[in-house]
From TrEMBL:
Signal peptide boundaries: 1-19
Entry EC no(s): 3.1.6.1
Coiled coil ranges: none
Species whose genome carries this gene: Bombardia bombarda
Claim: Manganese is one of the keywords in the record: no
Keyword terms, alphabetized: Glycoprotein, Hydrolase, Signal
Lineage, top ranks: Eukaryota, Fungi, Dikarya, Ascomycota, Pezizomycotina
Superkingdom per UniProt: Eukaryota
Any GO BP annotation: phenol-containing compound metabolic process
Record PTM: The conversion to 3-oxoalanine (also known as C-formylglycine, FGly), of a serine or cysteine residue in prokaryotes and of a cysteine residue in eukaryotes, is critical for catalytic activity.
Family: Belongs to the sulfatase family.
Gene3D superfamilies assigned: Alkaline Phosphatase, subunit A (3.40.720.10)
Protein name: Arylsulfatase
Catalytic class of the enzyme: hydrolase
Length: 596
């Protein structure tokens, strides 16, 4: 069961190899064609926050990336969990279209990535078809293990050196597996140092091959340290019993740093009143002992990130030495964000709050403005389209995202045409990764299944979500930047209006209909959802949709987003009405069904 589809994918290796030969551009040594495809270096950390200020402690990343490139301050992941987020990143698809929604089978992990057919349909494969050599080191996916790495091998890589489960998150006992070779244990060496050596080695290889290259580098910092055993997980209990979380472990030379640093004490840090909805709203305020431990956990994250900072410094030194900076784009991002103590949450991710979904993205490269901060809304789903465009390769009709404007003049040009929303979704459990304090503290919380959206423009800034138990959340981040007042909780008094003098319920109805489209959207509907509701094209954004002539359409006629039950994976029949079968559309002043 676990490896169904493996044989199909193994068969596809051949066609990948053939495609590579066909796509290869003959660039003889020394020949310098006028417009050589740019090289791309992609650095992907694990669980790095933007909102807990981790970037403030990384001087070399600041020097080489933020100061020399553009930071995308509204960059979002769409599922705040490593494996689903990475599969979405490399395929350009929302998790509801990959159906890789978890870290391990049956709903996720490397075996699910393979059985869904993506081992021959993801970014490195397409880049090879476009003439690139492709290199990767570090963590690719969860449940990519010392037992299944060759069943089949991950497709699309010219050379690879993967960090494998169950040793992925053991900072002092990493196991890597190079090309077709068996895994090697690096017991006693720090994972951050091992990966830096491997990254530099792959860069040397890429340069020697004298072809445009993509180099992916995925260190494990600042993820928590996890001592795990291999498990044939089918039940969250298996996961819980086979893993032990502790704070991340830095390299010796970084252990002494940041002794006085604490998690930023923002207004939503360990608040006096409960916040949010569902299980979050039931959390107890943390004791001083708990807060002290979490501050330690936070410092350990900053310390492990120092290894990444040094790796970035080392890379730029080599890129400069090889004289490649003029024709290389460097991306720096992470798979998902992280919270520690906000809304009383223990260290972890998997939530829809800004800490978990709004994450670092920095890009440096030819034509990219130095020291710029861009405020366009971008997501991980947009990265595969962006990189293919840089490679000069054709885009794909089934992408759920669209290329991110990178160069200054493209950025200045985008504001009105680009999407203003992010589709956020989650299935399954949330884990507390720190120490458990109190007798009733839980490592895993089930029913952490929800659909949500973020929508941001000059005039508005909302987070709206529906949970699988049908609780709702709405934050107006313009007036409540720390998401402390859930305007849809029965204990909160909702305001009379939310936006443009339009009644509260009427605005909420629009947000709900937008989520109704987004929660099962495919391809262009994911970037142009209003078009699905208004095919005439007269509504491009939330502002347009607020027109009072659409009140009935949104408030009275549309089906509402709801779940029939909580599931651990994407089972359509648990997820209530679907837009494709139950949605209404509006055209030229009349509902579509009155025209047709
Ligand atoms: C380190 O990893 C190797 C396998 O790569 C394993 O045999 C060994 O038991 C591990 N050591 C510890 C302390 O977990
Ligand atoms: C700016 O946008 C216009 C209209 O979409 C387009 O024709 C033009 O090529 C764009 N310019 C750049 C530099 O992207
Ligand atoms: C999870 O949701 C289901 C309904 O879908 C409910 O029966 C169950 O009690 C919930 N479990 C918890 C722990 O809240
Ligand atoms: C997603 O995968 C699960 C597990 O294999 C399966 O039960 C479910 O039907 C799939 N969902 C969709 C929408 O294909």
């Amino acid at each position: 069961m676990r490896f169904s589809g493996v044989t199909i994918a193994a068969g596809l290796h051949l066609s990948v190899a053939l495609a590579r030969d066909v796509g290869q551009k003959p660039l003889g040594a020394g020949s310098k064609p006028a417009a050589r495809q740019p090289n791309i270096v992609f650095i992907l950390t694990d669980d790095q926050d933007l909102h807990l200020q981790s970037l403030d402690y990384l001087p070399l990343i600041k020097k080489h990336l933020s100061s020399q490139g553009t930071s995308y301050k509204r960059h979002y992941c769409t599922t705040a969990l490593c494996c689903p987020s990475r599969v979405s990143l490399w395929t350009g698809k929302q998790a509801h279209n990959t159906n890789v929604t978890d870290v391990s089978p049956p709903y996720g992990g490397y075996p699910k990535f393979v059985s869904q057919g993506f081992n021959s349909a993801y970014l490195p494969v397409w880049l090879q078809e476009a003439g690139y050599n492709t290199y990767y080191t570090g963590k690719l996916f969860n449940a990519h293990t010392v037992a299944n790495y060759d069943a089949p091998h991950a497709g699309g890589w010219t050379a690879s050196d993967f960090l494998l489960d169950p040793y992925t998150y053991m900072y002092l006992n990493a196991s890597f597996q190079r090309n077709q070779d068996p895994p090697i244990s690096y017991e006693g060496q720090h994972s951050g140092d091992v990966i830096a050596d491997k990254a530099y080695g792959l860069l040397d290889e890429a340069v020697a091959a004298d072809k445009p290259f993509f180099l992916g580098i995925a260190p494990v910092a600042p993820h928590s340290n996890v001592k795990a055993t291999l498990f044939e997980g089918n039940h969250p209990g298996d996961f819980e019993n086979s893993v032990a979380f502790t704070a991340p472990i830095p390299a010796k030379r970084h252990e002494h740093l940041f002794k006085d640093v604490k998690v930023p004490r923002t207004p939503h840090f360990n608040p006096d009143e409960p916040q949010g909805a569902n299980w979050v709203r039931k959390l107890k305020q943390q004791s001083q002992e708990n807060v002290d431990y979490n501050d330690h956990f936070y410092r350990q994250r900053l310390r492990t990130l120092q290894s990444v900072d040094e790796l970035v410094g080392g890379l730029f030194k080599r890129l400069a030495k090889y004289n490649l900076l003029d024709n290389t784009f460097v991306f720096y991002t992470t798979d998902n964000g992280y919270h520690i103590g906000q809304h009383r949450l223990q260290p972890g991710k998997e939530c829809g709050f800004e800490e978990d979904i709004n994450i670092p993205l920095i890009v440096r490269g030819p034509g990219v403005a130095a020291g710029e901060v861009a405020d366009v809304v971008t997501t991980h789903i947009d990265l595969a389209p962006t990189i293919l465009e840089l490679a000069g390769a054709p885009s794909r009709a089934d992408f759920d995202g669209e290329a991110i404007p990178l160069r200054k003049e493209e950025l200045d040009n985008t504001t009105t045409l680009r999407h203003e929303h992010v589709t956020v979704e989650y299935w399954g459990f949330a884990a507390s990764e720190g120490k458990l304090f109190g007798d009733d503290a839980q490592r895993m919380v089930l029913n952490n299944t929800y659909k949500a959206l973020r929508i941001i423009s000059k005039g508005y800034n909302f987070y709206y979500s529906v949970w699988c138990n049908n609780e709702h959340e709405l934050y107006d981040l313009k007036t409540d930047p720390y998401q402390q007042r859930n305007l849809l909780h029965p204990d909160e008094k909702s305001p009379t209006t939310l936006l443009d003098g339009v009644a509260f319920d009427k605005v909420v109805a629009r947000l709900d209909s937008l989520l109704f489209v987004l929660k099962s959207c495919k391809a262009q509907t994911c970037t142009r959802p209003w078009q699905a509701l208004h095919p005439a094209g007269n509504v491009q954004n939330l502002h347009d949709a607020l027109a009072s002539r659409f009140d009935d359409f949104y408030v009275a006629e549309q089906k509402r987003v709801r779940y029939d039950r909580c599931e651990l994976g994407y089972l359509v029949d648990a997820e209530g009405p679907q837009f494709e079968t139950h949605g209404l559309v509006y055209r030229h002043g009349a509902r579509w069904d009155e025209w047709a």
